[in-house]
Every structure is written in C-alpha cells, then in structure tokens.
Amino acid sequence: RLGETLTKLKKKYPICFIIVSQLNREIDQPIRSEPGKAGNYIKDSDIFGADAMLQHADTVIALDRPAKRNLNPYGPMKYIIDNKDMIFLFLLKNRSGDTGLFHFMARYETMEMLESDEPRIKQTRE
C-alpha cells in the first residue's frame, strides 16, 4: 500500500521519494558466497519487498562492498578486489534509460564515494 500511495503522490505533485530498504537473506546463501560467480552480484529479487518496490519505483539502486563479504574475485567478470573500500553500484531499474554496473571508491573520512576505474580482471589460464 505504501508504494501505491507514493505513486499517487508522485503523479499529483512534482516530488521525488527516496526509499531505503535492506536486502533479504538470499544474498547470504552459501552458493552466493563463492568468489567469482554471477551469484555474487546483487539482483532485484534480493531487495526486501522487491515485487512492490520494482512495480512502483522509477529507479532502483543497490550498493555492494565485496571485501565485506570476502568475495575476491568478484562476480562473473572476476574483478580483483585489491581495496577494501571498493563499492559496486548496481542500477537495477531505470525507467528512463539503461541499467548497469558502476565502480566507486569510498572515502569514509570525508563521507564521499568517488567514481573509480573498472577493477582489474583475474586472468585465467587456458
């Protein structure tokens, strides 16, 4: 019901809502904790109350810090996490454009997130 109410208000007034939600426990499943796998990445169904959230939201963003979950390499691209402050931003839904993955470096002493180059990728021997 909250989503419906916010959608009605958004259509009636020129306002924007920022809703913060936690992830559900699916992200903590052992299979999702295997380094270098697609399951490392946050997906829209990992968001608590995802069905309603995705129906009403124009944009859905998720942040992940792989070092906190000891994921190295990270994801199917096998990004090498050589800095514990590396943050991955997942643009999971964007009603007016593309979705994607973006890389940032956290600076906690100044409470900043600075755009970062794509991390190095683990080379595999063939």
CA-based gyration radius: 17 Å
Total domains: 1
Main sheet overview: 4 strands, antiparallel
SS strand fraction = 15-25%
Q: How many DSSP E strands? A: 4
Shape: globular
Q: Element order, helices and strands?
A: HHEEEE
Widest beta sheet: strand line-up: 1-2-3-4
Low-confidence stretches: none
What is the average per-residue confidence, as pLDDT, rounded to a whole number? 93
Helix content range: 10-25%
Number of helices: 2
Distance between the first and last residues' Cα:
53 Å
Derived structural class: alpha+beta
Describe this structure as you would to a colleague:
- The chain is α+β, with helices and mostly antiparallel strands and 126 residues long.
- The chain is 14% helix and 21% strand.
- It is built from two helices and four strands; from the N terminus they run H-H-E-E-E-E.
- It has helices at residues 2-12, 50-56, and strands at 59-64, 86-94, 100-107, 112-115.
- The protein has a four-stranded antiparallel β-sheet, with no helix packed on it.
- The longest helix is centred in the N-terminal third of the chain and has 11 residues, at 2-12.
- The chain is globular, with a radius of gyration of 17 Å.
- It starts with a helix and ends in an 11-residue tail after the last strand.
Task: Describe the structure in brief.
This protein is of the alpha+beta class and 126 residues long. 14% of the residues lie in helices and 21% in strands.
Which structural traits does this protein have?
single chain; 126 residues; four-stranded antiparallel β-sheet; alpha+beta; 2 helices
Secondary structure layout plus pairing:
Layout: H1 2-12, H2 50-56, E1 59-64, E2 86-94, E3 100-107, E4 112-115
Antiparallel strand pairs: 1-2, 2-3, 3-4
Helix pairs in contact: 1-2
